[in-house]
């Protein structure tokens, strides 16, 4: 259990942190390290990021913060590093999402190059209900602007089927891992040098810098915490 990397031309990075795949500060940093290491390995052609258990990711481990609120800085830095690692990974990252994808999970999926989802997958930012903000940067990569705003204000979820209609989920499937691996195999069959340059070029033409944008959001979470508004993070 934990964060496991299964190396190969298609490197699988598997999150298995019971009961809900909510990550501690160390867990976020471990995930960032695994993704960066995979991308730096010349043998890796594509990364598949997936999870075991009931859902893809439940965000931050709130219990850790309840026991030590001083860890908030470490947790925020860990999330920042994990999201950045997915975005900056030298090879394409495919997020294979099942069940819930909440808070930090949206940060991971939103920064992935391709999202494949199970039929039961849904995505949401419950931050406002918890007195926090963040990952709207990444949600905006998955849904249109006005829906993103509605989701932030109301904390309402969207389904994989809705995201498929927007084109931000490539496939909705009952065979999640198999479908993700099939897409990964199509990429892995290409010239690896060309694919790495393609990833670099696509990041270079992004209209919004997700690292700077997310860091701006995080400042408001610190403000809300200082004002005594925090009721946990997701």
What features would you describe in this structure?
With 234 residues, the chain is an alpha/beta fold. The protein has a single domain, classed as 2-enoyl-CoA Hydratase, Chain A, domain 1, CATH 3.90.226. It is 47% helix and 17% strand. The strands form two sheets. A six-stranded mixed sheet has the order 1-2-3-4-6-9, sandwiched between helices. Strand 2, helix 1 and strand 3 form a beta-alpha-beta unit. Helix 1 packs parallel to helix 3 and helix 3 runs antiparallel to helix 10. It starts with a strand and ends in an 8-residue tail after the last helix.
Unreliably modeled segments? none
CATH architecture: Alpha-Beta Complex
| Helix proportion range | 40-55%
What's the oligomerization state? single chain
CATH class: Alpha Beta
* SS elements, strand count: 9
- How many helical elements? 10
Main beta-sheet annotation: 6 strands, mixed
- Give the tally of structural domains: 1
Rg computed from alpha carbons, rounded to a whole number of angstroms? 17 Å
* Spatial separation of the terminal alpha carbons: 21 Å
Helix/strand order: EEHEHHEEHEEHHEHEHHH
* Name of the CATH homologous superfamily: 2-enoyl-CoA Hydratase, Chain A, domain 1
According to CATH, the fold-level topology is 2-enoyl-CoA Hydratase, Chain A, domain 1
User: How much beta, percentage-wise?
Assistant: 15-25%
Please list the strands of the largest sheet in the order they lie side by side: 1-2-3-4-6-9
Query: Can you give the mean pLDDT?
Result: 95
Q: Which class do the helix and strand fractions yield? A: alpha/beta
